[in-house]
Amino acid sequence: MLAVSAWDGTVRVYNITTQGYGAQSKAMGEPRGLVTLQEPVLCVAWAPGQGGESVLIGCADGGLHQWNIGAGGNPNQIGKHAQGIRHVFFVKEMNMIVTGSWDRTVAFWNGTSPNPAFSHNLSERVYAMDVKYPAAVIGTANRQIYVLDLANPQNIRNQIESPLKFQTKSLSIFPDKTGFAVSSIEGRVGIQFLGDASKNYVFKCHRDDQSKIIYPVNGIDFHMGQGTLVTCGSDGILNTWDKDSKMKLKSFPKQKDSIVSAKFNPQGNLLAYLVSYDWHKGHEGYDSAKGNTIAIHTVDEKEVAKKASANRYR
């Protein structure tokens, strides 16, 4: 299933099926459910629930909600931040919910109490976050990056400054949890290793060399099987990369508008992405005729497999 949140307060859930085999297969989405909240929805995550799966929902007013799809009905509020919840995760190894908020905190919830079990105060608002147990990495508005060891979650393991000079946009932890990738509004991605800083590097991407336009890198996600990554940008392009050989694997066709998010499914055979204006050009750049698109790409192994010969980062 696929869960999608929107600024209009809606959360939509789709059943995803595939037809055909291999590179010729196609993914289809069938609507499963729709709810509308009173505030813009900034994030969603899957979690166990009554009667099956549930969706955790983080709203702009700080409300943390749980929608039990199998049981039907409306979402229930299970917690509250002082400001908007930018990211939410369910950590099954801890049986806890983790949220990152604009109120400058990261909070841990057991789902039965309206108050967090514990929380960390940060130096600024949470802009980017990823959790892959036992690692959690949080990027804040002042370009600070916090690293937590969830085996000992009540202590912050490390705090570093982003290797990128401009605002943090997205974070994704390596599948082997030895490091993470971080992106910024200035067409760059930083590869950071937790144990060996000498291996860290930064590369440029999502840039138009002819017009000299540099685009925000809105999302990063790692393929859990291959260890390669996808980036999506305000240029409307998806790129796949091999971080170990420092090579680009593929650039996908340009979309009609910015790509604001891109995620592989756990099996790595599907890539969901959202095409929507991200306001990087202000209100002057908005064109209502372009609309919003939820797309699912069936992944060909050649698009994500590590290769010895490819185009160098650019």
Radius of gyration over alpha carbons? 19 Å
Unreliable spans: none
Spatial shape: globular
What is the average of the pLDDT values? 93
Helix/strand class: mainly beta
Walk across the major sheet and give the strand order: 22-23-24-25-29
Number of helices: 1
Percent of residues in β-strands = over 45%
Classify the helix fraction into a percent range: under 10%
Order of helices and strands, N to C?
EEEEEEEEEEEEEEEEEEEEEEEEEEEEHE
Beginning-to-end CA distance, first to last residue: 34 Å
Describe the main β-sheet briefly: 5 strands, antiparallel
Number of strands: 29
Care to describe what's here?
The protein has 314 residues and is mainly β. Helix content is 1%, strand content 53%. It is built from 1 helix and 29 strands. The strands form 8 sheets. A 5-stranded antiparallel sheet has the order 22-23-24-25-29. A 4-stranded antiparallel sheet has the order 4-5-6-7, with no helix packed on it. β4 and β5 (52-59) form a beta hairpin. The chain is globular and about 55 Å long. The mean pLDDT is 93.
Q: Which key terms come to mind for this protein?
A:
314 residues; mainly beta; 5-stranded antiparallel β-sheet; globular; 4-stranded antiparallel β-sheet; 53% strand
Summarize the structure.
The protein is mostly beta strands.
Secondary structure blueprint with pairings:
Layout (H helix, E strand, L loop, with lengths): L1 E4 L4 E10 L6 E11 L4 E9 L2 E8 L3 E6 L7 E5 L4 E7 L4 E6 L3 E5 L8 E4 L4 E7 L2 E6 L3 E6 L6 E6 L6 E6 L5 E6 L3 E6 L7 E4 L2 E2 L4 E2 L2 E6 L6 E5 L4 E5 L4 E5 L7 E6 L5 E6 L17 E6 L2 H4 L6 E2 L2
Antiparallel strand pairs: 1-2, 2-3, 4-5, 5-6, 6-7, 8-9, 9-10, 10-11, 12-13, 13-14, 14-15, 16-17, 17-18, 18-19, 20-21, 22-23, 23-24, 24-25, 25-29, 26-27, 27-28
